[in-house]
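Take just one protein record:
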Amino acid sequence: MTNISKFSDVYIKTKEKIKQILSELKIMDTAIFDYNLSLLSPIKTGGKCACFLKINSKQKLIKLINILLKENVKFYIVGNCSNILFNDGFLNFLIIKLDKGFDKIEVLKGKQALKIKCGPAVNLQKFIIYLADFNVDFSFAAGIPGTVGGAVIGNSGSNKIGINDFVKKIEYISLKNISNHVLNNLTSNSFNAFFKDNNKSIDSSCNNNFNFKIANIKTKTLNNKDYKYRALVINDLLVLTGVYFELDFSIKQVEYKNFILGNNKIEILNNIRKKIKEKKASQPVRRKSLGCFFKNPSDSIFAGKLIEDAGFKGFKFGDAKVSLKHANYLLNVGNASSQDILTLSKIIKYYIKEKYNINLEYEIKLMGF
């Protein structure tokens, strides 16, 4: 665990600076200081951050980000935090959670297509049930935790289909005046991107070198080059603020059309229930975990199978344990720390590399390490 005496000056100064900024913007009412991050995380680990803030307005969010960058305050923007491992100890940054102002669904008129604008904070399961009213079957996403924004940022789905196959365009706050060359060469200490669950962080100390500015709200029509397995790839994207789905049933819009058409709402809801039942049977869905910890190395090589074949099911490090039900789930079975969870994952990564010469990549996101 991070020693607070070592970082107390930085932590305290960061907290005071955040207080001053939020007071000036008159948004202190939703701020909590010295916030216990284990309350946010489904794995129930993590230390305390200097401040946790809920925000409801795009305009206020842009103003806040501008000031944070100018004042060199590190911040993270999050959704439901369903796959974030927060570090232990006292963490000198601000967590910004998109709240009710970003939790709206709007049906747009279309002659031959269903057009929907969805806020990034909308619960993903709520959204797929909402779609069933329009005879649209998104049961491939049933049981996946988190928000629509997080699902789009991480291109959630199955091995065969991702949610971004059905996204027409996105609305977002972009980072202006940063070239692709600069973005690709910033170090992890100066610009940390956490894509899943709508998470992204900026350590604005790099502002001194690269003159960050925030652009106005921007929209972009997606093509298949803008996303890949478990990732949305938009270089200037800082915060996802809206997702536009367009489902045109008059043409074969996507290769996976059979996945989204259902005969009626009852059939679709049955498909959703069936999918959730299958997940409960094969995954430890009600345990303290972050979901699948590692990405599948390929369409035919599954991380869970590699870990199981290597004999790690049930393996423990402290109170961090590899699930007996699904080896790609790491559990907190008692009072594990985030460092315990991370150490267990590193043991697995090392052994899989030695045994199979495969580098496992994290599907979860590390924050504050």
Summary: The longest strand covers residues 237-248.
